[in-house]
Design brief:
97 residues, two-stranded antiparallel sheet, 6 strands
Length: 97
Amino acid sequence: MKLTEIYFYRKSDGNNTELAKVALVFDRVFRLKRISFRYFPIEKSYCLFLPTKKDSEGKYKDIFHPLTSDLYYDTLAAVVKEWQRWQADETLRMKLA
């Protein structure tokens, strides 16, 4: 599965570690939304929180998750690279404001 598009569609309010909400498109045919893109300053690391749903027992269950760590880390690296591009380009940053 190849990541073909990355969209940042909501910027965080700055009260937590979330930088933005992300939508990913795989192979130009599968779109995944509601991904929380976060940065943890103490660890100096980025992380993707994928969508979950609360079940009848109050536990959160994954809706979608990569089956290999390679897919997760390749996706994370692509999102970080695109985020840095957005941060460097003022016209793109204005779209998130």
